Description:
By secondary structure, the protein is mostly helical. The protein is about 60% helix and about 0% strand.
Amino acid sequence: MPATEGRGSKARLPWPRASGTERLLQGGVLVILTGSLALGLALEPSETGTGTHSALGLPRCGMLALTGHPCPTCGVTTSFVLAAHGRFHDALVNQPFGLICFLLVVAGMLVTVATLTTGRSWVPMLTVYGVAVPAAVLLTLALLSWAYKWMRT
Length: 153
């Protein structure tokens, strides 16, 4: 029976074994994602809704300083940190894309743990639509979040 056919007439994706290289890469991805989450937990969110990144030694947003309006990423770090602290509503209200980034990090951690523990590759399932569709969705969400943040300032 071909790998794309299941019981009855329902088609399914193959679920191949992850190669050693893929598992090693997934382990590296897990370390990076876990570090991002740990950093989010270690930082304190800015009460102004932007500027949390300055605790990392990064400069203030030039666009915000010059125009008084946020750049596309203003508030993303603050919202990520708010979400890491369990303040999901505050994260959503502050900068929706920061909450989306947090949820993607958590989902990425789950997928990498699943690959490492089951030995199965999730790559075919995650890339069934290619890169264009997820990239377009993320770009659209980022732009909508920026418009939302812009209107709130």
